[in-house]
What does this fold into?
Amino acid sequence: MKFVDEFRNAELGRMLSEQIASIVDPTTHYKIMEVCGGHTHTIYRYGVDDLLPANVELVHGPGCPVCVIPMGRVDDAIAIARHPNVIFTCFGDMLRVPGGHGTLLEAKAEGADVRMVYSPLDALRMAKANPDRDVVFFAIGFETTAPSTALTLMRARADGVKNFFCYCNHVMIVPPLRALLESPDLRLAGFIGPGHVCTVVGARPFEFIPREYGKPVAISGFEPLDMLQSVYMVLRQLADGRCEVENQYTRVVPYNGNAQAFKVLSEVFALRPHFEWRGLGFISQSALRLSDAYQDFDAEVRFEVPGVRVADPKACQCGEVLKGVIKPWECKVFGTACTPDHPIGTCMVSSEGACAAYYNFGRFAREKELV
Amino acid sequence: VNAAADDDVRPQQRDPAAADCTPVRSADGAWHCVTCSDEGVPMRVEQVLDAGVARCSDEKDQSSDVLTMLVGEIAVGDMLLVHAGTALVQLRSIGADS
It folds into this structure.
């Protein structure tokens, strides 16, 4: 398929691999963080890390909204879902994320009307088809997903739909990156930036990373050649003594973002003063709520939620995994008590979570790294 | 690049009770999690419906309605990058052939 096949060319991959090997300093250990869970997924699905020199290490960042959702927010979602007149809708992976009192899937088994949707528009259709029920959509995701929620809410308003509500958990990628960069226990050489987030916000919001922290950034696509080229771009900058934001994903990412998306986001959403991130704690101005103009659609206004903060299970080390401090297999419960069948931590739930990616594709990396 | 990776090596569906929460398998054969904001499915515009909505199909001819307000004017045959039912950008050949 066009836009896909040409970025999986094995010969080009080998050439890029050789070029990467030719520019690294063998005496230096390079830690490069890929921000997106989708990148983590690509790395293990295609064995990208096997094409890199041993001293180039890819570290997995906090770019999976499922993985960073705190348990208390899941409990709030379940509380809404248990209302007798509610149809609660969410994306598939959220169904299995454990809160302090079980998962949405367990709530469904106990009688709550919880349904999976593929888009907010599906949820709006459900509201129109069920005018006597309150349909709540669990909105979650970074800047890539937020416009979809915003456009759907604008459509709901235009169509006069009164039984559609949004439980808003949209988060933004720049604040946690800043928090990570302030973390003293993380020594990174550079970043691979989140390509699809940048289709909305552009590459410009990442300029603070080279400017304030002196780290190079390459905004990357999600095919294996995209990732190899992005690693090369970061290493090339380091070799040349440069430090800037480069856009590898030019076929999709406009450097200044999507002006229309900014417009709908600013109309429908407002910044939360602070929001809790799993493993990172509370980060100010890192998440979105519905704007005052859209309060009628806000599930947290329409329904009472407990709003109780729940501590992570003691055995779970998702926080350290999300910060790239430890590899997933270094977590005490990885692959034993915590598996995709029975996830304890969020990183094992999502198919793009670092632990699930290791478990499904890269579990043998453990032996390799131990040698 | 590991060509064998195109075969699905994921374990079987984990929980029969959770059969409806499989991550999306998109047209390029990859598993994606919509929630993670990484999913981007190339789709072709088949029909422009009412304002801001188009019926699009993926590589396997599975069609769905897509919100197109973020990508401006579109026409039948255009390729869009779709995430969570919304077109984020029109795919053009800039960079793709280089």
Notes: Chain A has 16 helices and 13 strands. Chain A touches chain B through 75 residues (CB under 8 Å). The first helix of chain A runs from residue 10 to 23.
